Amino acid sequence: MAVIFLYFALFLGVHFLAKRFVRRGAARLMQLVACFVLLFGFFGFRNITVLNDTPHYYGAYYQLTHLKNYVESSIFTYRILLSFEYGYQVFQHTLIKYVSKEPFTIIIVSSLIISWGNIRFISRQTRHIALALLMMLLSGVLFDQYCLIRQSFALMFFYAALPYLKQERWKPYAALVGCAAFFHLSALVLLILPFLQRIRICKRNVAIILTIALLISVTVYELFNLAGLGETKYFLMNIKRNTFPIGAVLDGTLMLALLLTCLWLYKKMGMTNYDKTTFWIGISGLCVCIITPSFLSFFRLNIFIWPIIYLTFFRFVDADDPMTDYGAQQQCQPLRRQIMLTALVVLAVRMAMILIFRNEWYHLVPYSFYDFSDRFHGFNMYWENNL
After folding, report:
1. HEC per residue, 23-51
2. In this structure, what are the phi and psi dihedrals at residue 251, rounded to the nearest 5 degrees?
3. pTM (predicted TM-score)
């Protein structure tokens, strides 16, 4: 666990080093390069035992490289038995056929895409790239992304689509969400956001939306049966659960605390501008948190929401980066610094508790790098025999 927190500390070091640069452009470039090296080095060369879904993608890639008919066929052939969305199938087949048959290729290439996609997105939200990434690492958001590769590819499309949503340019937004759905069907839920965006922000409307989420939570299994989804693996997996999802409740509580803090600071600093899109994204995240305790698989929908919420919270409490678009500028700096420090400490303690008592959530400990000198890995035979 000490290795993991030493890794976290490196981002803090990059943040303080960047503050020594006089020119903003030089500080930004240094953070971009350093953070990319840290993210890609840690996740791109991780062992296949690190992060839950790593062996799944590694194993599927390994098996397919040994199927001659698959390798020689067109990359645009859709195979329903693979249980992967079409976009990901084309992507994976392209790597196997034209890049490398080494199964670790999928880990390296996906880490490259996710690392650069996150850094690029975050760099457009704040000057303090390293500190924002530290908060997202401590929260576990980035660990989820590198674990859930297909959904993270969909998230990269959502990052690209978000500016169009804020500009109310719904056609390019819908087109990018459609592309995202080719990598993970859960992205289709993002098509709800343009409709929510049209709703006037008031207590009554927020209460109505949250009440609808509560009703869905109570009747979620009946709704799945009515929709003819009672035999899906996610339905069967959730209906067999017999333990209370404490983690889901704590996540919902954490999200509520972050959003309420943003609202409190908004009022305290006398802000006059607000981002309607971000507001309804936050409410959407709360709706998912309300439904998740009843149907745990819903937590995956918040893979799209959590980065937006953490970055919004970060910009509210970052006292040294003027929030010009919200009108906060340099107000309440001591208070915001205290909230920033408190949030980082709380998230660090939370992550330590997860690594100690719930390591199976991420499989981060013990961390190890992939051994490229070993021509045989135990997971090869596991997947060869079980897929």
Report:
1. CHHHHHHHHHHHHHHHHHHHHHCECCCCC
2. -65, -40
3. 0.92
